[in-house]
Amino acid sequence: MHPGDVTTGPGLATGDTHVVVACPPGLDVRRTVGRLRRGPGDPTWATTPGAVWHATRRGPGAATLRLCPVPGGVRADAWGPGASAVLTEAPALLGLLDDPTGFAAGLHPVVARAHRTHAGVRLARSGDVWSTVVTAVLEQRVVGVDAQASWRRLVARHGSPAPGPAPAGLRVAPPPAVWRTLPVWEWRRAGVDAQRSDTVRRAAAVAHAMRADLDPPELARRLRTVPGIGPWTTAEVTSRALGDPDAVPVGDAHLPHLVGWALTGRRVDDAGMLHLLAPWQGHRQRVLVLLQLAHLGRMPAYGPRGPRALPMR
C-alpha cells in the first residue's frame, strides 16, 4: 500500500464501518489533527489512550470518528449517518493530501530545524468549512481562551451528543440553521458580542455556498462577501478546512511578532511578516505552523496580551 491508500471492512464490535489508511512512517497524528482543535476543552474533540476522537457533521448527518495508529497506518472507525463521508475524508484529515513539493525549509536555519524536529506533522484538511467559520469568527478581536470558552458553551448547549460509543461530553456542533436562529441572550451568556454573533448569522444564511470542494481562493472570495469576514478570518478557514499551505492570517496581534522573533530576533508588523515569509510563497502557512510548533511561548514578553486587532472587511 501507498500513503493514503485505504482498506475497508465491517466494524464488527467497533465502528459502524472502518478503513485502515496507509501512512508514512513517523506521521504525528496527534499534532497533525491537533491544530484543528479549538483549545483543550473543545467538545468536538477528545483523546483516549491510543486514540483521537472527533465529532462532526457531513451531508448525511452527524458522525463520530476515532483515529487509532496501527502498524503501517491509522485505523479510522466511524459511527452515525455521516460515517461513510468522514471515512472517505480520513486521508485528508491526516494530512496525506498535503503536498510539500517546492518547500525549501533550508532557506532559514530556524525553519530547517523546525522542519526536522516536526517532520511528522502534515497540514490537515478538516473538510468542515462551516464549523471552522464559526470558530474563526468567535476568535475575532478577543483572546483565544475567551473564544474557546464561547465555543465550548454554545456547542455544549446547542450541539448534539456524538453518535456511537463516544467519550463522555463529545458533541457534534450545531448546523447553520441552529446558529442562525440562536436567541440573542444565548450569545451574550456565551460572551459573544453583537458584531460577532451577527456575522455568524449572516454567514449561516449562505453556508450552503461555503463548500469543502472549492479551492482556497474561491472559498476565500465567497467568505469575503459576508459583512464582518475579512482576510484574517478567511485565512483561518482556508488553512484549517481546506489545508491551504499558503494561507497567512494578516491582522493577528501576535503572529507577526512570532515570525519576526523566530526569523530575525526582533518584532515586526504585518508588512514585515509578509516580507519575511515571501521566500516561501506557496508554503507560507506551512512555515507558520512550523514556527508555532517550535517557538510558541518562547518570545520575550512585551506587556499584557490584548485582544486581536484585525480588519473586518
Keywords:
Endonuclease III, domain 1; 6-stranded antiparallel sheet; two-stranded antiparallel sheet; alpha+beta; 14 helices; 313 residues; globular; 14% strand; 8 strands
Low-confidence stretches are 9-13, 302-313
The span between the termini is 46 Å
C-alpha geometry? globular
Count of helical regions: 14
Give the number of DSSP strands.
8
Rg calculated over all Cα atoms = 19 Å
The assigned structural class equals: alpha+beta
Percentage of residues in helical conformation? 25-40%
- Largest sheet: spatial strand order: 1-2-6-5-4-3
The H/E string reads EEHEEEEHHHHHEEHHHHHHHH
Content of β-strand = 5-15%
Determine the mean pLDDT. 91
Largest sheet: 6 strands, antiparallel
Keywords: DNA damage, DNA repair
Protein name: DNA-3-methyladenine glycosylase 2 family protein
Would you write up a description of this structure?
InterPro entries: Alkylbase_DNA_Glycosylase/TA, DNA_glycosylase. Keywords: DNA damage, DNA repair. This is DNA-3-methyladenine glycosylase 2 family protein. Helices cover 39% and strands 14% of the residues. With 313 residues, the chain is an alpha+beta fold. Among the domains are: 6-93; 129-213, Orthogonal Bundle (Endonuclease III, domain 1). The protein has a six-stranded antiparallel β-sheet with strand order 1-2-6-5-4-3. The relative contact order is 0.13.
List the helices and strands and how they pair.
Blueprint: E1 6-10, E2 17-22, H1 29-34, E3 45-48, E4 51-58, E5 61-70, E6 73-79, H2 83-88, H3 90-93, H4 109-117, H5 129-138, H6 144-158, E7 160-161, E8 171-172, H7 176-181, H8 184-189, H9 194-205, H10 216-223, H11 231-241, H12 255-264, H13 270-277, H14 284-295
Antiparallel strand pairs: 1-2, 2-6, 3-4, 4-5, 5-6, 7-8
Helix pairs in contact: 4-14, 5-9, 5-11, 10-11, 12-13, 12-14
